[in-house]
Amino acid sequence: MTLMTRVLSVAALICATTPAVADEFVTATSEEAFEDVTFAVESAIVGRGLVIDSHTHTGDMLERTRADVGSDVVLFDGAEIFLFCSAEVSRKVMEADPTNIRYCPYAITVYQRPGEAVTVGFMHRDEPTMAPVNDLLQGLVADALAG
């Protein structure tokens, strides 16, 4: 058996034994100012006693490098991503399935396309063991947009 045949056999086996997962990017919109929505998301996360590991300014980076990559398209008026974890929720989902480590840290994205409302979103993981994370993220977005 050649190396290529072995690689293709392993790839076929992985595809045959890996369940299809239909993750979904869940979003909600707000007519509030971008800065107010990002502050509300940050406050919702911190308000639950969670620590933000990283707060990326993705929109600033894309705008700053737009000409450098030869583009004239303005993608966002603002775009930021909050990365964080919950020791309690993470332990629960990883005790149920240790491979859930691949989803940590969790992210909430806030962005605004030119001329549009602000969008807040997160990846909803379509695995039963990830339900606590989905609930946490949904709750944080609801808290942020409620007030």
From TrEMBL:
InterPro entries: DUF302, TT1751-like_sf
Entry-linked SUPFAM superfamilies: TT1751-like
Pfam families: DUF302
Signal sequence coordinates: 1-22
Keyword Cell inner membrane: no
Membrane-crossing residue ranges in chain numbering: none
Residue intervals of the DUF302 domain: 77-123
Keyword Signal: yes
Keywords assigned: Signal
Organism domain of life: Bacteria
Name of this protein: DUF302 domain-containing protein
Source organism of the structure: Gemmobacter nanjingensis
Phylogenetic lineage: Bacteria, Pseudomonadati, Pseudomonadota, Alphaproteobacteria, Rhodobacterales
